[in-house]
Known about the structure:
alpha+beta; 7-stranded mixed β-sheet; two-stranded antiparallel sheet; 27% helix; globular
Amino acid sequence: MLKHHLNVVCDDIWQRLENSKRFGISQGEETLTDNLLLYLASQRLSTIKIIQTPKDKESVKGTDWEWWIGNKTTGFLRYAVQAKKLDLKTGRYASLNHKVGEGVSAEFQHKILEDYAKTNKAIPLYAFYNHLDSTDLPKNWNCPLPVDHSKLGCTVTPLKNVKKAISERGWRTFDKIHSFPETVPLRCLAVCPNIAFASSGSGKAAIQRFEVEAKVYENPWGWISEMGHLQSFEQMPRQFYDHELGYYPKRILLIDTSECEFNE
């Protein structure tokens, strides 16, 4: 069931961007994110929770999303996520080197993501919203499930790949970023046993994911469920958010994988 809904999300983004190109109606990153979350929320799934963080400081820097994926048996992994949309005309991610802020205080978005993830013990990822014409479909398929190109509507890759793409001329393209074996469909974070299975039961407090020493967390739902009632970022729990750093996620998504096939 969880795999189905994540497949629907990827298919929907793929189709929306195709229609966007066909009819000349722009779909921005925030619109695509909102539609994704609206669909998940409308399904009223017990395995998915979506929280909007406080909006007392609209200018506060941070990440687009924070994802908590796992279950109470094996533990949860925490991801800090920045979303980017493919430029359908050029096949490039034009804003990978985007800066946030103005003047001397401006900071590269990827640096903010890196600092946030390191300080708050999360895995830094980029999520990409994509669509390709049939003539441009990639030869690489980094998922063990059968090839289904519409699942490339939403893909993820670790920050290290984005930093390489920024540093290398001509690498900010769909083809280059999806040539990295770690670039996979969104659903893989929740349904692939090689990624989603945290296994804190072995007594380990951290495991390797996306070449990052990832902290394995206990079930966070108890405190995450209270986040939607907070009035300011400063009220967010200090054991999970470094207020000295001052970066916060815009939204929090929790996915419980306890009903996934690899746990059966």
